[in-house]
Amino acid sequence: MLTFDAIAEAGRIVADSLAPTPLVSHPLLDRAVGAEVLVKHEHVLPTGSFKVRGGVHLAANLAAAESRNGLVTASTGNHAQSIAHAGRAAGVPTCVVMPEGAPECKAEAVEALGAQVVRHGTDLAQAAAHARAHAEATGASYVDPTDPRIVLGHATAYLELFTALDPAVVYVPIGSGTGAAGACLVRDRLRPGCRVVGVQSSAAPAGWRSWRTGRIETATSTTRASGLATTTGYPLTQQVLRERLDDFVLVTDEDIDDAARLLATRAHTLVEGAGAASLAGLLADPRRPGGAAVVVASGGNASTEEIARLAA
Asked: Is the Cα dihedral 136, 139, 145, 146 positive or negative?
């Protein structure tokens, strides 16, 4: 299902609900980085994250059983809001299981969209196991974060990007890897000369380990960046990334905070940790090519704790 034609069709569906996000150059950011940088401002979308694209596409492609019995998923926050958005759009009851440590602001946002929030477990793996059990017990359909309909929806961000621009390199944050997989699939058709580089926190390196070894690996997550706090590689997206991703950079949580401060002070952009990871990856990449670089501000759901830490 992960073909360019399927992404193009998803693009038509998503465009009916969501306006294209800005792709903007910020001169002060260019000066601070020492290179031409453009920011893809995905954080301005409804729910404050690129992941709503997946929810919009999912809502338009629900199976009969999903519409009849409802949806359940697990998430640290942004995927949760996208599925809640999908459930509300389709008039389908939705339950989201979130780890105990997921930001309260994201849980409140999920509830505001009409979904039920269940807190369970200390990490995403435990929350996902509980969500699957809940789905089996209730008859609801479990929505995996890498459901092909979700990946196709996320890929529409890069359909917009590569239609508008031919950059030298694009840095994409990686949690489950849906955004990076979508970026690679669209790049290969529209801008094959562009490098796509994934970025992940070194405090949640399961995706990076899976990409390097060619096997699905697990790893403990201790990252402060909730949008990157995955504990395993995901088979569908890893298959795409192993074949197509040009490079994969690990950054520290401190690197991510520094990048978030740069975006706030040099690009008028307040993002959460995952939304700053792309810029952190650019700054840490020793193989950065010359030419224009794009960083993806993937999410803007910064908690009060994040904002206070950045201000300090």
From this structure: positive
pTM value > 0.85: yes
The span from the CA of 12 to the CA of 100, in Å, is 37
- In sequence order, what are the residues at sequence separation of 6 or more whose Cβ sits closer than 8 angstroms to the Cβ of residue 93? 70, 71, 87, 116, 140
User: Tens of pLDDT along 195-240?
Assistant: 999 999 999 999 999 999 999 999 999 999 999 999 999 999 999 9
Amino acid (one-letter) located at 117: V
Domains and CATH numbers, the chain: 4-50+148-311 (3.40.50.1100), 52-142 (3.40.50.1100)
- pLDDT value at 77 more than 90: no
